[in-house]
Design brief:
The complex is a heterodimer of chains A (about 80) and B (about 150).
Chain A lengths: L1 E6 L1 H7 L3 E5 L6 H12 L1 H7 L5 E4 L2 E2 L11 E5 L6
Parallel strand pairs in A: 1-5
Antiparallel strand pairs in A: 1-2, 3-4, 3-5
Chain B lengths: L1 E6 L5 H12 L5 E8 L8 E8 L3 H16 L4 E7 L1 E4 L3 E9 L2 H18 L2 E7 L3 E3 L4 H9 L5
Parallel strand pairs in B: 1-4
Antiparallel strand pairs in B: 2-6, 3-5, 3-7, 4-6, 7-8
Helix pairs in contact in B: 2-3, 3-4
The chains are: A alpha+beta (about 80), B alpha+beta (about 150).
């Protein structure tokens, strides 16, 4: 299944990538997604995604914990928000 | 009832104010506005701010804040305009305009929406310097203001 992963703000800059499309096995979760990203982008880049202040959204809904992924899902990684 | 916009362009508080008054017609008894501005930057090296957003999710996050405000107070009209992109000192960043039958509801809802925009709306701010740039994090004061409204999370 195809999944789009996007990165924002400081994470986008630190990782040097804005978005990536991945082919994942069925039944993949946000946890196993990290392993796939590690293989594609390197361990150093993925270590940035595991920081305490990193938030994850799936299909533009904030995620608390982990989630199963499905065809055409969009997963976003970003740092703490600072609006207003 | 709610008009939510995320845009690069500046906004006219006078125009928004006039349209809001028209929409409320004779029902509105109070109209409260808050405008956020970019302060003169203390450090000469700083040139301005850059605001990034997540198209779609950002608008939804503001809609959720406005929906929560509408459940707490009796509101007739809400406008939230948040700018993105590069902004300079003294530029307008955000407008929150709340119309209601009575001032208590309009004052409270306007402050609530603005406080929650700080911690719940999906934006990222970066200070742009002449030599370097820095992403800004929410302050503990921002979070304590959110908690003061008894909002979890």
């Amino acid at each position: 299944m195809k999944v789009k992963v996007v990165f924002f703000a400081s994470l986008r800059e630190d990782m040097g990538i804005e978005e990536i499309f991945l082919q994942l096995p069925e039944g993949c979760t946000t946890d196993s997604l990290l392993e796939v990203l590690s293989a594609r982008l390197g361990e150093k880049a993925v270590s940035l995604l595991c920081g305490d202040s990193v938030r994850i959204a799936v299909n533009q809904e904030m995620l608390d914990g982990r989630a199963h992924l499905f065809e055409n899902d969009e997963v976003a990684y970003f740092p703490r928000i600072t609006g207003g | 009832m709610a008009d939510i916009r995320v845009q690069k362009e500046d906004f006219s508080i006078e125009d928004e104010w006039g349209r809001c008054r028209e929409r409320m017609a004779g029902r509105g008894g109070a109209l409260v506005a808050f405008t956020g501005l970019v302060r003169d930057l203390q450090d000469d090296e700083l040139m301005g701010l850059y605001l990034e957003h997540y198209p779609g999710m950002t608008e939804k996050s503001i809609e959720t804040i406005v929906e929560n405000a509408s459940k707490r107070w009796s509101l007739l009209d809400v406008v939230v305009i948040h700018r993105v992109g590069k902004l300079l000192a003294r530029d307008q960043i955000v407008l929150v305009l709340v119309g209601s039958a009575h001032r208590g509801d309009a004052f409270a809802a306007c402050e609530f929406i603005m406080d929650l925009l700080k911690t719940e709306a999906v934006f990222w701010k970066k200070e742009i310097g002449r030599r370097s740039s820095r992403w800004i994090e929410s302050t503990s004061d921002d979070y304590s203001r959110k908690v003061s409204w008894s909002v979890e999370g």
